[in-house]
## 1
Amino acid sequence: MVSAFILVVVDSGMERKIAEKLEGLAGVDEVDVIYGDYDLIAKIQVPDISKLGDFIINNIRSVKGVRRTSTLIAVD
């Protein structure tokens, strides 16, 4: 399994709604609202690195109100 932290910028006022939507996705371990340059941080797990891009594009960036993401891949 590959773990990654996804930093997400969303439309103003959509933080909690989008966090709830992301929390319901298979592969998402945790989502928190944060302050600063990003609005949310999500911890995800995918079977292997080749699935990471597809997961982000199809499951996170496709959510209405998501403006931008930045991905941090975790290592042991």
## 2
Amino acid sequence: MFATTFLGHQGWVVQTDQACLLFDPLLCEDFGAAHALDYRVFPPRQFDWAQFPKIDALVLSHEHDDHFDIPSLMKIDRRIPVLLSSRASTAGYRFLTELGFQVEPLVPGIILRIGDLELLPLVADHVNSVCGDEWDTLPFMVRHTEGDGSFFTMVDIPLTQGHLHLARSFVPKPGIVGWTNNAMDWSHMAAYVMERTEGTEQAIVRMHGGHGLLTSQWGQPAALVMCAGGMAFSGERAWLNRHVFCVDPEKVIKTMSNHFPNQRFYSGRPGQTWFMERGQLKKMEKQSPWLSILPPSTWPLRTKSGSKDIPDYAPATGRRQITDREVDRLRTRLNQFAGDLVAGTLFKSLYSTIGIEADGLACTFAFVLRSGDDRKALVFEYNPPSCSFEQAQGTAAQQPERAYVAGIECWATDLLAVLDGDLGPIAIVYGRARLWNNADDRFNFDIFNELYRVSHPLRRPNEYL
């Protein structure tokens, strides 16, 4: 018998009578504290640790907080070997080693055998697909050597024909397939971004297209499980729950089931377990003996409110005032960042925009930084020819939205923490910044992608560690 249990978000347990693998686990309800994210697993769960299965190996697909969760790792027996993406940073390997784990690299294309399970890691297509900063992410397949079943997930990476070709060579027919939905509505911090009222419909279209590619190139899955987005915000940022979650997974699954009535689609819920035998799905149990979800009455509300009233935001660092000495360091860090921007996506987009398209605005972008009670305490404009950021003066400093094509407002202390490597950029993504873009049809102001690129643990392992 081959069993796949959904832990929540993108965590999984795959087990047979002889082996058990744990993937990207969130074993604590709160996660992301390293980057001040204030996440909680959604829907809330309840573990019975006395019945938790004996784990033979822990697999970490990449180093993002929702897959490489430090409090969860602290719960795991150090005698359990950890398989970490071979493309992960030296910081990740050093951290796990110092924690007391034996760490082995998970190398794309190299099959690992644990008991009667075989694990095949794949790679992302970073040339032809939009993968963000998922440089170290490894999609993967697990199969039972006796042929009872298999599990396949792209994790956070777009599916391609190349992936299916490799998957088909490993398993002739798909078993349980995890389908990732990471769609979010960003209109709460960017007025030029349309509210994603059509998120559910777009998710249906994407799943329909992916399902078509999967079935035509590989075959009909035993079951397709929609996952990811399994978090809710807590504390002072709980208001985000009514703004960012734009997809109704239950509606997506119902629509897909209506389109393909002879196939099995599920909206993943923690504790759900799918059992396969001889390549066929035998049953699905809604909860396992060791994991179940709490009653819906305890769940935070994630239905979009449609309200345009966005509350003010506090700094991720907890510090509202930047000191003069920190401002000097900020200038240095910004000029270093200016060098990092050269030849990046934002740089190329800016150099593809001509002045007349800026409608009289300066054809560049600015950081508008808050400190204390002043929302425009510091304004730094990007100067590509001099490869620097220069402090704005006069009208540009007082009315930057009317002076520059685009810009981002955030707390000065937060930006410094990101540029110093003390926080990841994701700390200011959800509800801790505001953006504008007066030429969004021409200028791709993807500032967060650039901050991710220069802050990735591959780039700054010592700071990340």
## 3
Amino acid sequence: MRTVILITSNGMGRAELPLQQTLLAKYLALLADESPLPEALCFYTEGVRLVAEGSPVLALLGQLEERGVDLVVCKTCLDYLGIGGQVRVGRVAGMPDILSAQMRADKVITL
């Protein structure tokens, strides 16, 4: 089953930022131990901050990318937030790439 996970905020859930990021770090660490892994993680809106310099989950995302998970990062969002030059993991792409990943998926999960 092809799974795509959409990450649309700078953490997980609705709480203070440190708690959101702690929860996401735990989620990603557990996800890295799963088999099969998701086909892609798509980052847009505030979620793009997670692939940029200073993100507390860069190492975890790098591990997932090394294991073949496609990290798709919204260029429009990066440009809007002014952090395009700070991307450290993933591939910068457009909304057509995010839509394509969703349409190929058997299951889409939004965090």
